[in-house]
Design goal:
The protein has a single domain, classed as Amino acid/polyamine transporter I (Up-down Bundle), CATH 1.20.1740.10. Helix 4 runs antiparallel to helix 5. Helix content is 72%, strand content 0%. The N and C termini lie far apart (46 Å). The protein is built from 14 helices and no strands.
């Protein structure tokens, strides 16, 4: 991608913001609904799987230095496969951006802006992200370096400041609904680490190819810690949380925070920082879409297309008609789209690409050996 190089820390928080944005929304709630009291154990389990997947991805990419998954697709199958993979990732970015924007906008309307149309809230986000993307993706990533740690800090504050209300026995039984639900069906909760998809895209942006593994491990480690914190906060605090559906469930925990008479309504501070996080997430997603388009249709400048991209995201975000459709889209469609693209399609492309490269290298070695014999 034609963006400036970024450091490891910037790359790590680029991946983390994907997980954090969905933590702010409802992923902890969906995981609790799926695996009940064994949710913490389940996240530890899927975190180990995520580390293994990250290691495999980085090993496969070592054969393709300074290339992303689109470049690998072009190497494997030519321009037609490059185009297909590019379209899949563009559609993925459009989908997650639209549904996340609609979910968060609905939550803001319910919590604070009761008389404001949700369309107006969505437009505020998109106007802001459109303006920011006129500056460029590299600047957005640098701003994210400030926003993401801030979100992580307040998540930690939330966990510690409400710990006096925790009922630790709510984590029992430790296996929840059984071994199968926790370790077999519960493996689908790997979708919570949707940030893994960024690993397929950032290799050309790093200063060193060998840093990809370091970036992946650090980001998955941090994401797993904060997923556990978010899930634990809900599980230990509320007896009803494992069998309910609500918008912005983590917000409920912030209402339980109490710092005395001096500092009240701290939930407003959390909402403000979460708004910045959603802005950062949307800006990064739009930035990647623009760079994908530039790479696919071979143009020098993609910034004028930001208006069309934002308009499409606006249109897609209005497709869900009610709360039930938003939940279904996030808890079901998003889950299987992430698993299909991140854990099935992209690894297959990488593996086939590596096999092709090894075959070519073996053929080149044989030719070189025959030429050496002839010279002898």
């Amino acid at each position: 991608m034609n963006v400036n190089k970024i450091g490891n820390t910037e790359a790590i928080f680029l991946i983390i913001i994907v997980t954090v944005a969905h933590i702010i929304l409802n992923i902890p709630q969906y995981i609790l609904n799926n695996t009940s009291t064994s949710s913490i154990l389940n996240i530890i389990y899927v975190s180990i799987i995520a580390f293994i997947i990250c290691y495999v991805i980085c090993r496969l990419f070592s054969y393709f230095p300074n290339q992303d998954i689109i470049d690998v697709g072009k190497y494997l199958g030519g321009n037609w496969l490059k185009f297909i993979i590019g379209i899949l990732y563009i559609a993925y970015m459009f989908f997650i951006s639209s549904i996340l924007l609609r979910n968060f906008s609905e939550s803001l309307k319910i919590i604070y802006f009761h008389n404001t149309p949700v369309i107006a809230i969505i437009l505020v986000f998109l106007i802001g992200t459109t303006i920011v993307n006129k500056i460029g993706l590299a600047s957005i990533i640098k701003c994210n370096l400030i926003i993401s740690p801030l979100v992580l800090v307040i998540m930690l504050i939330l966990f510690l400041s409400t710990s006096h209300e925790y009922v630790w026995q709510r984590a029992l039984p430790i296996l929840g609904n059984g071994f199968s639900e926790t370790f077999i069906k519960g493996l689908s909760n790997i979708y919570a680490f949707g940030g893994i998809s960024i690993l397929y895209l950032i290799s050309p942006m790093l200063y060193k190819q060998c840093d990809l593994k370091k970036v992946g491990f650090f980001s998955i480690g941090a994401s797993s810690i904060y997923l556990i914190i978010a899930i634990a906060s809900l599980l230990f605090m509320f007896p009803f949380i494992t069998n309910t559906q609500t918008l912005l469930s983590i917000y409920i925990a912030t209402r339980e925070m109490n710092f005395g008479e001096f500092l009240q309504r701290t939930d407003a501070i959390f909402i403000l920082i979460w708004i910045l996080a959603i802005f950062s997430y949307l800006s990064i997603a739009i930035g990647f879409i623009l760079n994908f388009l530039k790479k696919l249709i071979l143009i020098n400048f993609s910034k004028p297309m930001v208006y069309s991209v934002s308009s499409l995201i606006f249109s897609f975000s209005l497709i869900p008609e009610n709360f039930a459709q938003i939940i279904f889209t996030e808890d079901t469609l998003y889950k299987y789209i992430v698993i299909s693209l991140t854990l099935i399609i992209s690894p297959i492309i990488l593996i086939l690409g590596v096999l092709k490269k090894r075959k070519e290298n073996k053929y080149s070695d044989n030719i070189a050996h025959l030429l050496e014999k002839e010279n002898i």
